[in-house]
Amino acid sequence: MTQFRPIGLPWLAPRIGIVELFGVLGATIRSPDYGRMFSALRDDARVRAMVVDIDSPGGSAAAAEQIHRGIAKVAAKKPVIAFIRGSGLSGGYLASCAATKVVAIPTAIVGSIGVISIRPVISELLQRLGVKVFVTKAGTFKDMFQPFREPTDEEQKKLQTLMDEYYDWFVDAVARTRRLQPKKVRSLATGEMFTARKAKELGLVDELGDLDTAIDMATELGRVPRRLAYLRPRRAILERLVGRVAGGLVEEVAAEAERRLLTRIEFRA
What would you report as the CA-atom Rg of the chain, rounded to the nearest whole angstrom? Predict the structure, then answer.
């Protein structure tokens, strides 16, 4: 069953699908919803090409990979143009790499290839509140990501090994999809941000332009009339019940609370 909602256009003739990725991956942009939509787009013969409109600082590493894979599956069957309008950073840039071509407005910010782990430590706060934490565990490192104590040196080494694995995967993914030498990508993968103009010189972007440039490219590569359908995932049940704004606010608050308390690994600027 098709899992996306066409906006403002009879759903009959061949067309270009426009998908917006605005916000943090894994929070504002829920990867399961977009994964189902990309699967439906891949198999829908009426959508001859797709433009992914991106303005994202990245987010959850797992969400970024899932969205990257979803876009890549569409690109394997039909042209996909990524358009970076504001920021295509870290996981946001990873998403764009899965497209057939990458277009960016010259003043956009691109890159920030790297991985970061964020672990809040609230041990001092707990002491001030008079709160004690007792842990019973089976497995030496089972509690290594808990926020009630600082990590040990051995745990930090374990975490760094994990981070290096994520980093190597990110570098390899960019090198493969952008057809660049891994050594070159590694030299750029310092977390540094580039203007789109500089990113084009470095091979991270194909063309400079605006959304119309990306649509023109999709029209040409897909051999499809300039007929657009803006697509978005079906709203979650919570949003249907209480409305888009209220539902989105509830989920954002819950996601922010989770981000502040739990260790997370992110492809994020």
Answer: 21
pLDDT digits (tens, 9 = 90+) for 118-131: 878 887 887 788 88
The boundaries of the domain holding residue 170 are 4-268
Question: Six-digit token pair at 137?
Answer: 């565990």
| Residue 104: predicted pLDDT | 98
Separation CA 214–CA 147 (nearest Å): 45
Q: Is 200 a catalytic residue?
A: no
Considering 137, 142, 157, 187, which one is annotated as catalytic? 142
pLDDT band at 201 (very low <50, low <70, confident <90, very high): very high
Convert the pLDDT of each residue in 232-258 to its tens digit: 886 555 555 555 555 555 555 555 555
Whole-structure pTM over 0.85, yes or no?
no
- The predicted pLDDT at position 241 comes to 55
Phi, psi (rounded to 5 degrees) for 36:
-65, -40
Residues 6+ apart with CB under 8 A from 132: 126
CA separation for the pair 126, 106 (Å, rounded): 48
Between CA 44 and CA 41 the distance in angstroms is: 5
142 counts as catalytic: yes
Which residue among 90, 96, 101, 112 is the active-site one? 90
Interatomic CA distance for residues 106 and 149, integer angstroms: 45
Q: Per the structure block, which two tokens stand in for 108? A: 């956009």
CATH number, domain with residue 43: 3.90.226.10
